[in-house]
Amino acid sequence: MVRMEVAGLSLDKKTRAPILILKDLAGERMLNIWIGAMEAMAISIFLNQVEVPRPLTHDLMLHSIEELGAQLLGVDIVRVENGTYFAELDVDMGGRRSRIDCRPSDAVALALRAGIPILVSRTVLETTDTATGHSPQPHDPATDGAAQMMRSAQDSQKTLEDSRRVAQVTDPKRDDESLTDLLKKMQPDTKYRM
């Protein structure tokens, strides 16, 4: 197994699908794995140190593992079949080791949050063309597709919150009675009226 780290995220120029870029610690080998947009966002949130108000799925998973008395020791990308990569979580459950099948993108998102090694099988590296004669471009949040999606979502959330504040300011006399009247006006004329 070869220890690797996240070099960054990119977008496929043709499909615009997110690509997870891993590199070995010496910077000699790289592995590109096409991943889903949500997993890319989860990885990007960690890389860009974005604070979220509530735990996301990978945070929940890691907290659940810990609360159940287990420990995530590492993640391994173990094989590739027909262009699909397979990973396993290495979990210690009170002295009993278990390996759990998962997608590499989820494994990497968990590894980043847990601060544990990301290992890739030598066979996977030999199967894919991973030798590089140059250093990968450093992670740049300005061009990171997942980071751009996150910023867009944050902008949309801010716009929604601003419009809610405006609605409250422009209608300060709204009370239960006027809200009830408004709801009655919105009901359809059917036998199923509320």
TrEMBL record:
PROSITE patterns assigned to the protein according to its UniProt record, in alphabetical order: BFN (PS51658)
Biased composition, class Basic and acidic residues, residue ranges: 158-194
Superkingdom, taxonomy of origin: Bacteria
Protein name: BFN domain-containing protein
Region of interest (Disordered), ranges: 129-194
Gene Ontology molecular function terms on file: nuclease activity
Alphabetical list of PANTHER family matching this protein: VON HIPPEL-LINDAU DISEASE TUMOR SUPPRESSOR (PTHR15160:SF1), VON HIPPEL-LINDAU PROTEIN (PTHR15160)
BFN domain sequence ranges: 1-132
A Pfam family it matches: BFN_dom
Organism name: Halodesulfovibrio aestuarii
Cited InterPro entries: BFN_sf, Bi_nuclease_dom
